[in-house]
Write a structure and sequence with these properties.
heterotetramer, A mainly alpha, B mainly alpha, C mainly alpha, D alpha+beta, A: mainly alpha, Formate dehydrogenase/DMSO reductase fold, 71% helix, globular, C: mainly alpha, Cytochrome C3, 4 domains, two-stranded parallel ribbon, 12 strands, 7% strand
Chain lengths: 391, 44, 520, 317
């Protein structure tokens, strides 16, 4: 315990990462000011024809998909009884909780009147809209994640009585988490069901909700592996030995699950093409891009995962997890930005402005900094000495 | 698409192909599951 | 797991990706079509019933060019019949079954092509796909060549009126072609699209007749639309004397005429000859009387087209009323007629044509009517029943003054131009030359009279649910004026409002007569 | 995805009927054909001469800021324009490449019978009124712009340069004027009466009559009759619709039907997931207990063997 505090104290301040983060924060602050004084148009290339850009495509859609690690891990451990991965729960919950908070934070930038975000629930309910369901589930799941994460914070604060009650809720929260996640991961896909004339037929399909949900499971699994790799590189000294022991088994177990889920996802995507008889589109330019996404970011990682699991080679699995995470990002951007408005002539197509990318980087940097703050202080990567009871 | 004029024909073609794909997928998935067998003894 | 399997598995996604990426960008760009007339669709000529592959479009001129360069002549592909005439089918004079035909074409074409390629500098297609290719680089713009009066006149001059050089009749007794004076008619009367019991099809008959003199051997010489446009147009061609009457009283023939109430139709044949390009417009199946095929009740001979339809069908290229109706789309006429309901026969004009004696009185009046002038209105020059001064010079249209000054409508000038057009056209003079129907161009839906009703009498507030298709006054004015101007392409369809009425100079972008809403 | 809109609506109306007992005009089998005598506008592009009076009128009636180029300046028509926050309607000029024939067409909100924007809005800011127009209420709007994504005609516009009160703007069919019995501004201003206002059923009749009277002048199809489930702005043209910037591949399914299937699965998941997940949890807990039990057994036997090791291996029970 003590060497952890010592390590915390002795960290140098002026590391290249810190400097880079500081610059991003300054720029981000300026852009935020500009956004909330001169409107969305001042900091983005969004227009009436392309109302949604990378804030929705990346921050919201990809952010939510990559934060699926939370429900996937807690389901695996608590519901499917995979006790051997117990150490992976807290980091996954932390990533999930941080992911969702950043999604809501990013939403404040993208939405025209952010102070009215509670309106759909309190003032006038538009229940016919998929967005209503997404909003409701994201809000609820955010609270569920907060509760699931609170034991780590409470341990750090030493409030053991509250911690005891919260720990008793874990099972209930896990089941609620899985339900809410199934709902909004799928309905994020259902958002685009409403615009069949704008999304390219290869990406548009009545199965969109299912594609989004299944790919979010793969994303969750890969994110856990990816996140544990990063944590192991950067914050190894904060890990207790149980965490270190389970480092590779988690990779194998989750890698195997990810391989199976990716195989299922690939099959479903092919079924989607068959359902709408879109085979002819595969031979067009868009077809090539679609096959690039499918073979490069679904088949390839699935294959690499299976190789890694068969040969017990964690490096291949960790590489596959990175590719899957990028694949999810590509798929979400494809659906929301790249293949959207596919018939609009090329010169009028949308491309994010530097400031938009700047604000997205700003939000990611905040996420990383908060993650570092929590992981170095709260018992996430290690067991707090006073609370040995394993629930 | 040239031979397809009615919803019935459209569904017949698409559902037909999907069933074939589904059978192939199920066989493949079982093989893939075994392919990834993580028998305990090779755990460490 | 052995290394080999892993390598194959590894290459699979990459290979798949490459294959489709290449395939993707080889998307067939729209083929730039160039047109030529010499494409013969072999499926059509060989009458293949259900072709399994795309039809071969045989470029006749390329082969002719190849033949002339290599010392071949028509004989290599065509055979000559015992009269020494060229048979236009490919290397066969006896009819063959479809399969024999397919084999016939394939053997000969492939043999010739391989031989030509052997010479080296030719790349004649041999693969199935290259002959049966679709879409093709060439698009056929083969257009039939019509033998109208001007072309006919050119030929009469060339053959200095020797009709026998082309016209003939088949004397079945003697079994040969003879020329009978006064029996000349169009080729298509006997030569149908396909050969029928001995009479060759129009295709082989016309080719034999024309090519013997012209000796052109490529289709585009005659069938290429650009070349056709270059043919000299003669306009005042002399009349083709074939014993046709100048004037006739058309009736339903000798069938039970006692009961028909409608008069016969006095028909000025000579004036129609001048107006029309060829005799075939009306005599499209020969010079027999129409009612032989177009019986009043309709018969199989004319696919059930009754005499009434033959004469009155709006969309038929041969019917009287159809032809007259199309005349109305001339710029001069479409000013008024363009705005009227199209394709509808106006009932009150039956007697305009049927103003001859009743069929039952025909033999009583035999010989009395010899010329169409007896039926033409007494005045040959059209005039209005009003005196010139009664026609208002300028009419100020000011019922709807708002952002624009009232329109100074040059009423007299327009009436005069219309009357000039009407008197200039025989058909217009006959149909409405003497009455004041020209006024009904604008004062429509109301009886003709000295002071026709004003527009605002009928056109008021727009969108009245009871009078659904009647526009409001603003719409009526603009639709009528711009419609007429556009149809007669006078001033075109301008959208510059100051052409007809000056701007009142109100605030530049004043909306319209819409009053400004009270609250800010 | 077999839950179709029909079955979902069946439950809804059933529940609503039971709960409220209100008189719901529930069409058989969930097929709805809109408010009976709602108003609509028929746009005849063969009559439109592109004079932009309608744009000027719309600008005045709605007190929109004046554009820098006057409405009389027709050079604006040379490039294609779309609706903007300061222009609810625009006239576009389309030239036929082969014949050079020019066609003008006015573009504005089509006031669909089943609006995609209303279905998309999660605060219900858009509402289809019985009079026929689709109204927007800025007071509840959050600015998420999902309506712009949903609208197949790309009509709603958003104030991207306003940070404090950005709102969606679109043609309102001059609802206040209609309520006062007046005509919409653009309809009243059109000199050629290329815009006909009236009940949608009457306008369909007028359009059919015009097509019958002038067969060569019109394509025999009224655009808006069934596109996207039918709209209250109908079009008849001489040139094919694709050539005047109107999409003919939108289909006839009303927009809400695209998402009703997905939304109807939500209650099923809420209903079934607890049972499934709970069940799994119980099964796995049971299995862990058995493992636990066996482990204890194994440990016990191992200890006994060790003790008995000294006394020639007595068999344990």
């Amino acid at each position: 315990m003590t060497d952890r505090i010592a390590a915390l104290k002795s960290r140098p301040l002026l590391t290249p990462f810190n400097i880079f983060a500081a610059i991003i924060l300054v720029i981000g602050a300026f852009l935020t000011f500009k956004r909330f004084t001169q409107g969305i148009g001042a900091v983005s290339n969004l227009t009436d024809t392309h109302p949604w850009g990378i804030w929705i495509g990346f921050d919201l859609l990809t952010g939510v998909a990559l934060a699926a690690g939370g429900y996937v891990t807690s389901a695996a451990v608590h519901i499917f009884g995979k006790k051997e991965y117990h150490s992976a729960i807290r980091p996954a919950i932390l990533t999930g909780f941080l992911g969702y908070s950043l999604v809501v934070f990013a939403l404040l930038y993208d939405v025209g009147r952010p102070w009215k975000l509670p309106y759909p629930f309190l003032v006038s309910q538009g229940v016919t809209s998929v967005m209503f369901e997404v909003g409701a589930c994201v809000m609820l799941y955010l609270t569920v994640l907060f509760l699931e994460f609170s034991p780590a914070a409470l341990e750090w604060l030493g409030l053991s009585k509250i911690r005891k009650t919260v720990v008793r809720l874990t099972m209930l929260l896990t089941i609620l988490g899985v339900i809410l996640s199934t709902l909004h991961q799928s309905s994020l896909g259902a958002l685009f069901l409403l615009a069949p004339s704008k999304l390219h037929p290869l990406w548009y399909s009545p199965y969109l909700p299912i594609f989004f949900f299944v790919s979010s499971i793969a994303a969750g699994l890969s994110m856990v592996i990816f996140e544990s790799t990063m944590a192991h590189k950067k914050f190894e000294i904060y890990m207790d030995d149980r965490h270190k022991q389970e480092y590779n088994p988690v990779a194998f177990g989750f890698g195997r699950a990810a391989a199976l889920v990716l195989a299922a996802y690939f099959a479903c995507k092919v079924f989607g093409i068959a359902l709408d008889n879109n085979w002819r589109f595969l031979f067009t330019g868009w077809g090539a891009w679609f096959l690039f996404e499918l073979s490069g970011f679904v088949l390839l990682p699935c294959f690499m995962y299976s190789i890694g699991v068969r040969d017990r080679n964690p490096k291949v699995i960790r590489a596959a997890s990175v590719i899957t995470v990028l694949g999810i990002m590509l798929n979400r951007l494809n659906v929301s930005v790249i293949a959207f408005n596919y018939h609009v002539p090329a010169d009028e197509r949308y491309f994010p402005s530097i400031m938009e990318i700047g604000i997205t980087l700003f939000i990611i940097t905040i996420g990383i900094l908060v993650y570092r703050f929590i992981v170095t202080r709260m018992p996430v990567l290690y067991k707090h000495p006073d609370y040995e009871d394993v629930h | 698409m040239e031979g397809i004029h009615t919803l019935q024909e459209f569904m017949f073609q698409t559902k037909g192909i999907i069933y074939i794909l589904a059978v192939g997928y199920l066989l493949g998935f079982v093989w893939f599951w075994r392919f990834l067998k993580m028998d305990k003894k090779r755990e460490q | 797991m052995n290394k080999l399997l892993r390598k194959i598995m590894g290459l699979l996604p990459a290979g798949l990706l490459l294959l489709f990426a290449l395939n993707g960008c080889s998307e067939s760009t729209a083929v730039q079509k160039s047109t030529r007339a010499d494409l013969i669709n072999l499926v059509e000529t060989a009458h293949i019933s259900n072709p399994t592959r795309n039809a071969v479009k045989f470029p006749h001129d390329i082969h002719v060019e190849f033949a002339s360069k290599n010392g071949e002549e028509c004989r290599t592909c065509h055979e000559y019949n015992d009269h020494g005439d060229l048979v236009y089918t490919f290397k066969r004079s006896t009819p063959m079954s479809e399969d024999e035909l397919v084999k016939h074409y394939h053997d000969r074409c492939q043999a010739c092509h391989t031989e030509a390629n052997a010479f080296g500098e030719y790349k004649a297609p041999l693969l199935c796909g290259s002959c049966h290719a679709e879409p093709r680089r060439y698009e056929s713009n083969w257009t039939p060549i019509g033998f109208d009066k001007s072309l006919h006149y050119l030929h009469t001059m060339v053959t200095d009126d020797d009709c026998a050089s082309c016209h003939h009749v088949y004397d079945s007794v003697a079994g040969e072609l003879v020329y009978i004076e006064g029996e000349e008619s169009s080729c298509i009367i006997c030569h149908k699209s396909t050969a029928q019991n001995g009479t060759p099809s129009i295709k082989s008959a016309s080719h034999r007749a024309c090519i013997t003199c012209h000796s052109e051997n490529s289709c585009s010489d005659c069938h290429d639309p650009i070349r056709q446009a270059k043919i000299e147009k003669m306009d005042d061609t002399p009349r083709l004397e074939r014993g046709q009457p100048d004037f006739a009283l058309l009736s339903a023939g000798d069938r039970d005429l006692r009961r028909s109430k409608l008069g016969t139709v006095p028909f000025s044949h000579i004036e129609h000859e001048e107006a029309l390009g060829t005799c075939r417009t009306c005599h499209h199946e020969g010079f027999e009387p129409c009612q032989n095929c177009h019986t009043p009740g309709g018969s199989k001979l004319a696919q059930g087209v009754t005499l009434q339809q033959a004469m009155h069908a709006m969309n038929s290229p041969h019917s009287c009323v159809g032809c007259h109706d199309r005349e109305k789309s001339e710029p001069g006429c479409s000013g008024c007629h363009g705005l009227m309901e199209q394709g509808r026969l106006s009932e009150h004009s039956c007697t305009i044509c049927h103003n001859g004696p009743k069929p039952s009185e025909l033999n009583a009046v035999k010989g009395r009517f010899t010329s169409f002038d007896q039926f033409r209105a007494d005045t040959n020059k059209t005039r209005l029943s009003f005196a010139a001064k009664e026609i208002p010079e300028i009419v100020e249209v000011s019922a709807l003054q708002d952002r624009y000054q009232p329109v100074k409508f040059p009423h007299k000038r327009i009436v005069d131009t219309l009357m000039a057009i009407i008197s200039g056209s025989r058909i217009a003079t006959y149909f409405h030359g003497d009455e004041d129907v020209v006024c009904q161009g604008c004062h429509h839906q109301s009886p003709i009279g000295e002071s026709p009703p004003l527009c605002e009498n009928c056109h008021g507030e727009p969108f009245n649910p009871n009078t659904k298709n009647k526009p409001g006054l603003l719409g009526a004015y603009h639709r009528q004026c711009t419609g007429c101007h556009e149809k007669m392409n006078v001033l075109g369809r301008g959208n510059d409002c100051t052409v007809c009425h000056e701007d009142k100079g109100m605030q530049a972008d004043a909306g319209t007569s819409v009053e400004r809403p009270k609250e800010k | 995805m077999g839950i179709t809109r029909r079955s979902f609506l069946g439950w809804l109306t059933g529940a609503a009927g039971v709960a409220t007992g209100a008189k719901t005009v529930e069409a058989a089998h969930g097929h709805f054909n809109g408010y009976p005598d709602s108003y609509a506008i028929l746009h005849d592009t063969t009559l439109c001469i592109g004079c932009r009076s309608c744009e000027a009128a719309c600008n005045t009636v709605n007190n929109l800021p004046k554009p820098e180029k006057s409405f009389k300046d027709l050079t604006v028509l040379d490039e294609k324009r779309r609706t903007t926050p300061h222009a609810f309607t625009v006239v576009n000029k389309y030239t036929d490449p082969h014949t050079g024939k020019i066609t003008y067409r006015k573009d504005q909100c089509n006031h669909c019978q089943e609006p995609a924007c209303a279905s998309a809005c999660f605060v219900g800011a858009f509402k289809k009124t019985p009079e026929g127009s689709v109204q927007y209420d800025a007071s509840v709007c959050v600015g998420c712009r999902y309506c712009q994504i949903a609208c197949p005609f790309n009509i709603p516009t958003f104030d991207f340069d306003d940070a404090f009160t950005p709102k969606i703007t679109k043609c309102t069919m001059c609802q206040p004027r209609i309520e006062k019995g007046q005509l919409p501004g653009c309809v009243e201003a059109c000199p050629m009466e290329a815009l006909t206002f009236g009940k949608r059923s009457d306008l369909v009749e007028i359009a059919r009559e015009r097509i019958r009277k002038y067969p060569q002048r019109y394509i025999d199809h009224i655009y808006g009759m069934d596109e996207m489930g039918g709209t209250n702005w109908l079009y008849i043209t001489e040139t094919p619709f694709e050539q005047v910037g109107m999409r003919t591949d939108l289909g006839v399914t009303p927009a809400p039907e695209f998402t009703s299937g997905a939304l109807s699965i939500v209650p099923m998941i809420i209903g079934l997931w607890p049972v499934l997940l709970g069940g799994l949890y119980v099964i796995n807990k049971r299995r862990d207990e058995i493992d636990e039990h066996e482990k204890e057994e194994a440990v016990k036997t191992a200890i006994e063997n060790a003790n008995n090791g000294g006394k020639e291996g007595r068999h344990d029970r």
